[in-house]
Amino acid sequence: MQRLLIIFCIVLICTSVSGQIIIRDGPPDWEANPYMQYNMQIIALLQYDNGQISLNDNDMVGAFVGNECRGVMAPNPNHNGIIFLTVGSNQLSGEIVTFKAYLADEDEVVELNQAIVFENQLQTGSVSDPFLFNHHITGPPDWEPEPYMLYNMQIIGQLQHEDGTISLNPEDIVGAFYGEECRGVMSPDPAHNGLIFMTVGSNLDAGEVITFKAYLAGMDVTVDLNQSLVFENMLQTGTVANPFSFTYHDEIPDELWLCDILIAAGEQVCYEAGETIILAGDDTWFTAEADSEVFLAAGETIIMRPGTHLQAGSYVHAFIDEEGGFCFTEQSVVVNNIRIQHSTKGDEQGLYEPLFEAYPNPTTGIVWLEIADHNVSNTYRLSVFGITGTRFMERELTGASLYMLDLSDLPGGMYLLRVSNSYYEHTRRIIRH
What we know:
Layout lengths: L11 E5 L2 E5 L14 E10 L12 E6 L2 E6 L9 E7 L3 E11 L4 E12 L3 E2 L6 E4 L16 E10 L12 E6 L2 E6 L9 E7 L3 E11 L4 E12 L3 E2 L6 E4 L7 E4 L2 E3 L4 E6 L2 E4 L6 E3 L4 E6 L2 E4 L3 E3 L4 E6 L17 E3 L15 E4 L6 E6 L7 E8 L4 E8 L3 E5 L6 E8 L4 E8 L1
Parallel strand pairs: 3-9, 3-10, 11-17, 11-18, 19-22, 20-23, 21-24, 22-25, 23-26, 24-27, 25-28
Antiparallel strand pairs: 1-2, 2-8, 3-6, 4-5, 4-7, 7-8, 11-14, 12-13, 12-15, 15-16, 29-30, 30-33, 31-32, 31-34, 34-35
């Protein structure tokens, strides 16, 4: 929920090409939202407009999603100006984080040029190679397609922002690339619903993989787009009636497990997965407080397991979207295939008899799975996926009560082991050292 803060003061506002500069009377009262479930780390430096690095611990860098502050930190003069900034979110990934800086000597707040897509546990920059915050003018990139290409293909597309809206800004730019070589450039046409009519060139009649970038003029940043196409001479991708969609928000995971999450009063969030969303379970919790709004959009199944607490006055809309719009879909989709798993013990904690045990935990690679209600005629399905929903392994378990699972090829981190049969499923977290 946005809060209206009324301040009685006199401010001088100066605008530049790169963004807004606000002359202040003292530092801003940035305060990070304290109720964030996930975080990422940024190790960075603040670069002044003259190229020098800030060593002033009265300077500040703030991280924002919209107008909500998600993290604040000052340069550390004892560590060559390094800024150790923690950024919070209630979503595992996908929110675009922008940045501002308060420059104490000038007593002004400037918009920084950088933007980062939030990802839980991501570390951007290091002490030896810090991320660089700056606010000097960057402006649009100097993309220029290679001339004299022998072949070409056509793309009719639109540039979709993170909130699902289509860019109508003719100063935005979409570029097509083969490696670092520019093969085509075009901007949205606001007179034609933001359509982008792009020609992509090549000296081969087929086979080159074309990737895309976009310059977003409103934020003065360049982002990698999610799409790629294999070049084919005279191919047309997209039409005026059904344009190709360029996007830069995170790809939607197949499976998403929402555990130990609090949606506070006044917050509105949307979670999406291509196949399955699971709430709580395995001694974890998912709580939506009164006056919060939660949208759950999945392609196949939504499972609310013990530990799911939807308080009176909360608004939770769970829906299956087979069209793939998910969080960008109109919220009138018919609700179906929603399963609520109740406790087998009936207590207030939502505890239930586990389907299997997994040990040792943590593990260096080998994990033993012990099926609790073993029957030689039962068939179980084992899935191993990352905390963000990436599936790493799937296999059937038949005819035994004890199985060995080898996770040695997976990098260190947290994984979810899910065992299911026709009647029940159970997920356990396991740490791979």
